[in-house]
Amino acid sequence: MAVREVENIFADILERAKALDPANARKWFEKLTALHLDGGLLGVGCPNEATAQFLRDNCKSSFTQAAQQVTGHLVTVDFSVDHDEKSPRRSRRSRPGLKLHPDYTFDNFVVGPSNRLAHASCVAVSQSPGNTYNPLFLYGSSGLGKTHLLHAICCEAGQKFDKAVIQLLSCEDFVNRFIRAIEKGNLAGFQSQFRTVDTLVIDDIQ
């Protein structure tokens, strides 16, 4: 999910939580940030551990209710200290040219009845890229974990096949590259850059 989209959704969740718990809103809700929202998990960043612990003990119910009302889905809320002033957390670079969100792994994905098949399919792809479910297409509403699973595929495949060429890009980036190739009369170059890729992952196809 795009950073701006997460921020907008979290702003709505925060306003709803303030309405549900006005007694704690002014003192405890002002400096909260969205760390991530994917796979049915909302990560809320807090300025310090004291705030995080207070919210865990006293406000988890109101935040959970607010998140589920705004997204229309079952959501688990987790409060932790935001060590990065920019949220959601910046992606780490696991290998040259590949930017992955540090939290988007299979271990961190919340598996349930509605996403069990998608999760199992992505795990299978990561274990045998290019052979299992080729191509694999994930479809679903925003906030259900599609981006999380795509990053997890890249992370797992990268660890298992250290010499594999893995490329993750947005659909917009893919289309822009294609348009530039047409403008420059270099379709052959566009095709060659993807023919040498072992695992190609395209996110956010509209």
TrEMBL record:
Cellular component terms (Gene Ontology): plasma membrane
**Which CDD domains does the entry link to?**
AAA
State a single Gene Ontology molecular function: DNA replication origin binding
A Pfam family it matches: Bac_DnaA
What InterPro entries does this protein map onto?
Chromosome_initiator_DnaA-like, DnaA_dom, DnaA_N_sf, P-loop_NTPase
Domain Chromosomal replication initiator protein DnaA ATPAse, chain residue ranges per copy? 100-206
**What GO biological process, any one, is recorded here?**
DNA replication initiation
Q: What is this protein called?
A: Chromosomal replication initiator protein DnaA ATPAse domain-containing protein
What is the source species? marine sediment metagenome
